[in-house]
TrEMBL record:
Native source organism of the sequence: Halobacterium litoreum
Transmembrane regions listed in the UniProt entry: none
Enzyme Commission identifier(s): 2.7.1.178
Tagged with keyword Transferase: yes
Gene this chain is encoded by: kdgK1
Taxonomic path: Archaea, Methanobacteriati, Methanobacteriota, Stenosarchaea group, Halobacteria
Protein name: Bifunctional 2-dehydro-3-deoxygluconokinase/2-dehydro-3-deoxygalactonokinase
A Pfam family: PfkB
C-alpha cells in the first residue's frame, strides 16, 4: 500500500448552479472529505491508496464507501450502530456573495473512532500515512486517535504527512495552534497554507523563511507552503523549491488543496523529486478547479499535459 489516510467523509449537498439553499428544489449529492479526497486523488494518479474511518451502518454510510470505491480508493471502515452520517451544504456564489458552507456533522459516527478499532495494520504496511487538522478538531476522542495514529505510523517506519487545513468553524486559531503543535513531533511532511502559517501558527516573514523556521523548530523533513494564485514552495534539507500556479478556469474551487496534496504524494511515492511533486500538485490542483465536486477526477495523462514545459525552480 502506498498511501493510507484517516478522517471524516461527509455527504455534500448543494443546489445546482448558484441557486440559494433557501429556495432550492433539488440538491446534488456527493461524498466529500479532505482525507478521502487525497486518497482518491492520489489513487487516480497511480498510487495504491486506502481510507480509514468510522461510519454509521446505514444507507448513507454505504453511499460514502460505494462512492469512494468507485472513484479509486479502498475504504476500510468501522461500521457503527451509533452516530450519524455527517453532511454539509454548499452554496456556490460569485463575488461579492462568495461561497457559503453550512455544516451538519454533530454526532457523526466518526467522532467516536478510536485507535484500537481501526485497521492500523494498513498504516504499518504503507509508504505514507496522511491526515489533516480537520480531524482532531472534531472531538477530543479524534484528537487522541489522530495523535495515536501518527505515533504508530512513525513507530512502524511509515512516513507521516499532515495538512494544517485550518477550519475556523471548527476551532479558534489559538486552540488550533495548541492542538496542532502537539501533533507536530510525529509529522514528517507538513502542508500548510501561507495564510494558516501566519494566522494560526503565528509565523512571519517570506514563505521560504516560514518553511525553514517550521522545519527547524519541529524537525519536519519537508514543509510545503501553499500560496493560492502564487503557487507553492517546499523546504527540504534547507533548500527551498518554488512552483508557480497554472492558469485555470475555475468551476468549483472546493477541494483544490486536497488535489494539490494528492498530486504531490502520488509523485513522491512514484519516486519523483520534491520539484516533480510540487509540479504534479500544482497541475492536479489546476485541473480540479475545472471539475464539480470535491475530488480531482483526473488522469495521469491530463496532469502530464498540463505539466508540459513547466517545472520548479530551486533556491539554495
Amino acid at each position: 500500500m502506498d498511501i493510507v489516510t484517516f478522517g471524516e467523509t461527509m455527504l455534500r449537498l448543494s443546489p445546482p448552479g448558484r441557486e440559494r439553499l433557501e429556495r432550492a428544489t433539488e440538491l446534488e449529492f456527493r461524498a466529500a472529505g479532505a482525507e478521502s479526497n487525497v486518497a482518491v486523488n492520489a489513487g487516480r494518479l497511480g498510487a495504491e491508496t486506502a481510507w480509514l474511518s468510522k461510519l454509521p451502518d446505514s444507507p448513507l454510510g454505504r453511499k460514502v464507501t460505494a462512492t469512494l470505491r468507485s472513484q479509486g480508493t479502498t475504504p476500510d471502515v468501522v461500521w457503527s450502530e451509533d452516530g450519524r452520517q455527517g453532511t454539509y451544504y454548499l452554496e456556490q456564489g460569485g463575488e461579492p456573495r462568495g461561497t457559503n458552507v453550512v455544516y451538519d456533522r454533530e454526532g457523526a459516527a466518526v467522532t467516536t473512532a478510536e485507535f484500537a478499532e481501526l485497521a492500523t495494520d494498513r498504516i504499518a504496511d504503507a509508504g505514507y500515512f496522511y491526515t489533516s487538522g480537520i480531524t482532531p478538531a472534531l472531538s477530543e476522542t479524534l484528537a487522541e486517535t489522530t495523535a495515536d495514529l501518527l505515533e504508530h505510523a512513525q513507530a512502524t517506519g511509515t512516513t507521516t504527512a499532515f495538512d494544517v487545513n485550518y477550519r475556523g468553524k471548527l476551532w479558534d486559531a489559538e486552540t488550533a495552534r495548541d492542538g496542532l503543535e502537539a501533533l507536530f513531533p510525529d509529522v514528517d511532511v507538513l502542508f500548510v497554507a501561507e495564510r494558516d502559517a501566519r494566522d494560526v501558527l503565528g509565523r512571519e516573514g517570506k514563505p521560504a523563511a516560514i518553511g525553514r523556521g517550521l522545519a527547524d523548530e519541529f524537525g519536519f523533513g519537508t514543509v510545503v507552503v501553499t500560496r493560492g494564485d502564487e503557487g507553492a514552495l517546499a523546504v527540504r534539507n534547507g533548500d527551498a523549491y518554488r512552483q508557480g500556479a497554472f492558469e485555470t478556469e475555475t468551476h468549483d474551487a472546493i477541494g483544490t488543496g486536497d488535489a494539490f496534496v494528492g498530486g504531490y504524494l502520488a509523485q513522491r511515492v512514484d519516486g519523483g523529486s520534491v520539484e516533480d511533486a510540487l509540479a504534479w500538485g500544482a497541475a492536479t490542483a489546476a485541473l480540479k478547479r475545472t471539475i464539480p465536486g470535491d475530488v480531482a477526477l483526473v488522469t495521469r495523462e491530463e496532469v502530464e499535459s498540463v505539466l508540459a514545459g513547466d517545472g520548479a525552480d530551486i533556491d539554495r
